[in-house]
Design goal:
Strand content: 5-15%
Shape: elongated
Strand order of the largest sheet: 8-7-6-3-9
Number of strands: 9
Number of domains: 3
Oligomer: single chain
Number of helices: 14
Radius of gyration: 28 Å
Structural class: alpha+beta
């Protein structure tokens, strides 16, 4: 595939996601905005395919109308399904964009379905993959998720729609649901404090705190699928931050069979509900879920890709030497709770020097970990009893 073709299709993917969101809403004004974006996405697909076929090397396609782009591709033997509907979509977009007329939501949804079918058929004909397949290889970073989505694509091609839904739900489990699993807490007594390091190894850090103990799990978890305990407010905020509509997520949750992966054995199990085998295992449902799952994964990935952090340069941490045996406090305050102690002459890892809560004294934030024997220290030590050692350089 030519790089220019790929770049154009990446834009198409973003436009189509937004068009799908707007065109699916039962509001004339929102749906009308969606049809403008949908037609732009469709026209860019025609443009991308023209580039891939080398038509741009023979003619100035940047000046072509929508109908001319369709015509040139058809001249090259590329069948455009529902071309009459696509031309009607283009005319509807003109009425909305240039004359301020609004479209009916039901009509817009028909155009959405027709455009998606035409886009996928044309891309398979020209490039060998539909829009979802192209995006998989180029955009999804996490290998495990990508493999599951690719497996779902192949299963849909083979007509194994139920199996495809299972693979799609596995991808959703990895990307979202696993963070709400309380399985790792099934042996942890209620009220026992294990600290930050200990809790990190338990998993399920987004699950509600009330569910993270042996007593609650014994009383409420009746099958492995009950280990998933959503904090609905946290989930809603996450989806909003990622740019995913809550309806898209819950549609995936409703339309795919439940799966679970055990924390230690990594064994997958599937909840064999007959409604998915008998009613959900359709081509339409499988393709819809695949498209929405890919959109979810890409938007979540994009959110984290936007993160920016200070470079560590040649240094990873600051080292301090304790001048005497001294306590580590929970706060930057000498009369706060004592968490542990620093040994005289020993070197520890530190993060920063901060003012005490009284505004007069100074404290060093200790953040020290040793593997053997296991030692984790995090708290505040009086800076007057510490001396800074040169920051440790990376090897």
């Amino acid at each position: 595939m030519k790089q220019e073709t790929l770049n154009t299709l990446m834009v198409v993917r973003m436009l189509f996601d937004k068009a799908h969101e707007l065109c699916s809403i039962d509001d004339r004004f929102i749906a009308s905005a969606g049809i403008v974006i949908l037609q732009d996405a469709l026209e860019l697909v025609l443009y991308a395919c023209s580039i891939e076929l080398g038509i741009d090397e023979e003619k100035s396609i940047e000046n072509f109308t929508f109908d001319q782009l369709l015509g040139e591709l058809q001249k090259r033997g590329k069948k455009i399904i529902k071309s009459g509907t696509l031309k009607a979509l283009n005319k509807e977009r003109v009425l909305v964009k240039h004359y301020g007329q609004v479209a009916e939501p039901a009509t817009v949804r028909n155009y959405l379905d027709a455009a998606r079918g035409a886009i996928d058929k044309l891309l398979v004909d020209v490039i060998g993959k539909d829009l979802t397949g192209i995006m998989l290889n180029e955009l999804i970073h996490k290998e495990e998720t990508r493999n599951l989505i690719e497996a779902a694509c192949k299963l849909i091609d083979e007509g194994l729609y139920y199996d495809a839904l299972v693979e799609i739900r596995k991808a959703i489990f990895i990307e979202v649901e696993e963070e709400y699993s309380v399985e790792g807490w099934k042996e942890h007594p209620r009220g026992k404090n294990i600290g930050i390091l200990g809790s990190a190894g338990m998993g399920g850090w987004k699950a509600p705190w009330y569910a993270k103990n042996r007593e609650w799990i014994e009383e409420n978890v009746r099958c492995p699928f009950d280990y998933i305990q959503y904090d609905h407010e946290k989930l809603r905020v996450d989806l909003m931050e990622w740019g995913i509509t809550t309806q898209d997520f819950w549609n995936l949750w409703r339309l795919t069979p439940q799966v679970y992966r055990f924390k230690d054995s990594k064994k997958w199990i599937v909840k064999g509900e007959f409604q998915y085998i008998l009613e959900g295992a359709t081509e339409e449902n499988a393709k819809y879920c695949l498209d929405r799952a890919v959109s979810l994964v890409l938007k979540k990935q994009e959110h984290f890709d936007l993160g920016r952090y200070l470079s560590q340069g040649d240094y990873t941490e600051i080292k301090i030497r304790s001048k005497k045996q001294q306590p580590i406090f929970t706060k930057a305050q000498k009369d706060s709770q004592v968490l542990g102690q620093l040994e005289e002459g020993k070197i520890y890892s530190a993060k920063a020097i901060v003012s005490g809560l009284d505004g007069e004294s100074e404290f060093v934030i200790i953040s020290h970990f040793e593997l053997e024997p296991t030692l984790f220290l995090f708290g505040y030590a009086q800076s007057e009893f510490c001396e800074i050692v040169e920051p440790a350089q990376q090897e």
